[in-house]
């Protein structure tokens, strides 16, 4: 770069503004939460899109044959269910009629082509998700979450709803803590579903059941097909000829199986994950193009691949695409549709012609075009961590064609600890990362032990070790880059949201490596989380930490709020005031502790925001405030003025 200007890292002028990230993209959430629920109905393709510019509203879109896209759900409807709080499975389509959950009242609505939405469930405190249409009986089978009794834990069941009336649903299956993925056989005679109980999460262990659907729509004889407390079953699907398929991690990897003549047969065994943690409903990693051909997505070493699987021969043939993240796979004769992205392409809805191999982008989550010179492409790292093990991360070096850093200066580093924690980072184009790198700040996005995409053993490194293994991996990732001479050892920061915020606060409190941090709705008090979180996660900590209250001492030992005296570096906190997963008092207690101690601290709350920020104005404010905070702490000037944030004790 012979014409590049020498300027301190962090002070580079960038075209990737917070306004652009917040208003011209789908925000800073994961791609699977921002673009999800790809669905096929006849020749049409539907999907759900998050729109920060519209107050974080989710909108159903349709792409008709020929590529014309249009909004399906009108303003002010927000197609989002709150079952399990994280939702998913927000709508279903049959013969052009759309059925969706509306966020404001959690009622199910029917929307006929050319009409207006009208409710088909009563004004009671029920939530619905993951519906499948039974056209023969004019009913929908779905998950229902009953919140009608205040103070009682919600009751989850599978119910059948009359699509032509205002109906709360007739219970088909009940008695367990959780249900998901009801799926009807092609002839409507059998129903498959998943279920599990506390303290398991669905990636720990689930059961796959099949029941016979009787003439009145109720279930008769039922049979356990697969699964248990130590086997995670994912995405049961019926083939067009009525054979039940599913994904199981019984070998340590989520692989494909089928149920034939009362026995279970593997379709293709490999060290790859064809499944994903069921944080949300409606996930789909494979689909039937025909009875003998499955189009599937699988992950190896954190990278997605697309393939075709012949169910008769067991031959898996890779399908070449540029995409490194693929989800929401659906198929029909001659075509497959999925959501996907790669490091220089934002999340998009893509159609694959299975005859020619041609790819067509039906919809991009952002039409913003950024000059490649400003884009930092991730380097996949494997680095040593505790106990002789290896951990994984994506490293983004500073990149801007107009600037270079001073010869003897190394850039600041932001380490990202992703949420979940049973989740993973992703490699699609993320302008919220390019926001940092184009200003001269390096980013390390860590897939710490416990992350998905590396098999069950890697996922289970976090069992009983949350707040230890994840912190060690983030710390060792930062040290690895320091040892390589990539970054400034005195300007290391760590940031994360939700569970990633917990890792951030633990790293700042119990380790002496990072000089600053940013917590987005992060957990600081494990005891409070164990006592006060929602049903879906209310026993999650049993596996991550230990049984409560039996191991209360361990909960206290790993809660940053109890050791604020050890925290001596600046922290900025961002918090939604309507957050029910991690209530605001967790952040506010931590802020008060740092304020009293005299440590530089900033607190930026947002009225109306919940767990995960969805509004454009919130996303813009957080990026600018965090940049301003780092400029004050690390001592670099900003190329453009941003709205200041009050940093106390500075």
Q: Give me the side-by-side strand order of the main sheet.
A: 30-31-34-33-35-36-37-38
Q: Main β-sheet: number of strands, strand sense, barrel status?
A: 8 strands, mixed
CATH architecture designation of the domain at 370-634:
3-Layer(aba) Sandwich
Termini separation (Å)? Answer: 37 Å
SSE blueprint:
Elements: E1 5-6, H1 18-23, H2 31-34, E2 35-41, E3 44-51, E4 57-63, E5 69-71, E6 91-94, E7 97-101, E8 108-111, E9 118-119, E10 126-134, E11 139-146, E12 155-162, E13 170-173, E14 178-184, E15 190-196, E16 207-213, E17 219-227, E18 233-238, E19 244-248, E20 255-260, E21 263-268, E22 286-290, E23 293-300, E24 303-310, E25 316-319, E26 325-332, E27 335-342, E28 345-353, E29 359-364, E30 379-384, E31 390-396, E32 403-404, E33 413-417, H3 431-437, E34 442-447, H4 456-459, H5 469-483, E35 492-497, H6 499-510, E36 516-520, H7 526-532, H8 540-544, H9 552-557, E37 571-576, H10 584-597, E38 601-606, H11 616-634
Parallel strand pairs: 1-32, 33-34, 33-35, 35-36, 36-37, 37-38
Antiparallel strand pairs: 2-3, 3-4, 4-5, 6-7, 7-8, 8-9, 10-11, 11-12, 12-13, 14-15, 15-16, 16-17, 18-19, 19-20, 20-21, 22-23, 23-24, 24-25, 26-27, 27-28, 28-29, 30-31, 31-34
């Amino acid at each position: 770069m012979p014409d590049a200007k020498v300027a301190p890292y962090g002070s580079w002028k960038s075209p990737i503004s917070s306004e652009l990230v917040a208003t011209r993209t789908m925000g800073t959430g994961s791609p699977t939460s921002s673009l999800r629920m790809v669905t096929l109905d006849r020749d049409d393709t539907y999907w759900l899109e998050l729109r920060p510019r519209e107050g974080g509203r989710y909108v159903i879109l349709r792409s008709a044959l020929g590529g014309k896209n249009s909004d399906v759900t009108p303003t002010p409807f927000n197609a989002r269910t709150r079952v399990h709080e994280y939702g998913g499975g927000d709508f279903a389509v049959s013969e052009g009629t759309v059925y969706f959950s509306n966020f404001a009242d959690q009622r199910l609505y029917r929307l006929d082509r050319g009409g207006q939405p009208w409710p088909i469930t009563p004004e009671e405190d029920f939530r619905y998700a993951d519906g499948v249409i039974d056209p023969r009986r004019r009913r929908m089978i779905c998950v229902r979450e009953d919140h009608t009794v205040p103070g009682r834990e919600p009751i989850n069941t599978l119910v059948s709803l009359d699509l032509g009336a205002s109906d709360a649903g007739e219970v088909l299956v009940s008695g367990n803590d959780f249900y998901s993925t009801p799926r009807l056989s092609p002839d409507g005679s059998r129903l498959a579903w998943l279920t599990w109980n506390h303290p398991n999460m669905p990636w720990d262990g689930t059961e796959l059941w099949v029941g016979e659907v009787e003439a009145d729509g109720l279930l008769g004889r039922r049979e356990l097909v697969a699964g248990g407390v130590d086997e995670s079953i994912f995405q049961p699907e019926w083939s067009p000829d009525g054979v039940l398929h599913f994904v199981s991690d019984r070998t340590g990897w989520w692989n494909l199986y089928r149920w034939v003549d009362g026995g279970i047969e593997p379709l293709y065994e490999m060290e790859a994950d064809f499944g994903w943690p069921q944080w949300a409903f409606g996930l789909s990693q494979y689909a039937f193009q025909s009875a003998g051909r499955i189009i599937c997505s699988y992950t190896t070493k954190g990278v997605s691949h697309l393939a075709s699987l012949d169910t008769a021969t067991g031959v898996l043939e890779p399908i070449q695409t540029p995409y490194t993240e693929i989800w929401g796979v659906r198929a029909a004769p001659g075509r497959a549709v999925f959501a996907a992205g790669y490091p220089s392409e934002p999340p998009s809805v893509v159609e694959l012609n299975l005859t020619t191999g041609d790819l067509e982008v039906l919809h991009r989550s952002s039409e913003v075009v950024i000059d490649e010179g400003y884009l930092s492409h991730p380097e996949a790292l494997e680095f040593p961590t505790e106990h002789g093990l290896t951990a994984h991360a994506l490293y983004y070096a500073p990149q801007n064609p107009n600037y270079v850093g001073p010869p003897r200066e190394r850039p600041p580093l932001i380490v990202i600890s992703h949420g979940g924690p049973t989740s993973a980072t992703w490699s699609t184009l993320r302008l919220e990362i390019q926001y940092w790198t184009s200003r001269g700040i390096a980013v390390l996005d860590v897939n710490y032990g416990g992350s998905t995409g590396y098999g069950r053993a890697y996922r289970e490194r976090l069992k009983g070790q949350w707040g230890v293994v994840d912190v060690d991996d983030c710390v060792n990732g930062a040290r690895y880059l320091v040892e390589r001479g990539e970054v400034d050892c005195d300007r290391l920061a760590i940031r994360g949201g939700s569970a990633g915020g917990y890792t951030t606060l633990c790293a700042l409190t119990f380790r002496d490596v990072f000089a600053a941090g940013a917590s987005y709705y992060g957990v600081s008090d494990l005891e409070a989380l164990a006592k006060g979180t929602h049903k879906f996660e209310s026993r999650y900590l049993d596996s991550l930490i230990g049984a409560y209250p039996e191991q209360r001492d361990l909960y206290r030992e790993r809660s940053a709020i109890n050791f604020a005296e050890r925290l001596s570096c600046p922290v900025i906190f961002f918090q939604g005031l309507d957050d029910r997963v991690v209530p605001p008092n967790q952040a506010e207690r931590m802020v008060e502790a740092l304020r009293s101690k005299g440590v530089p601290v900033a607190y930026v709350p947002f009225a109306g925001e919940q767990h995960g920020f969805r509004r454009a104005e919130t996303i813009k404010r957080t990026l600018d405030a965090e940049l301003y905070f780092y400029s004050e702490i690390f001592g670099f000037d900003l190329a453009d003025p941003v709205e200041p944030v009050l940093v106390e004790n500075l």
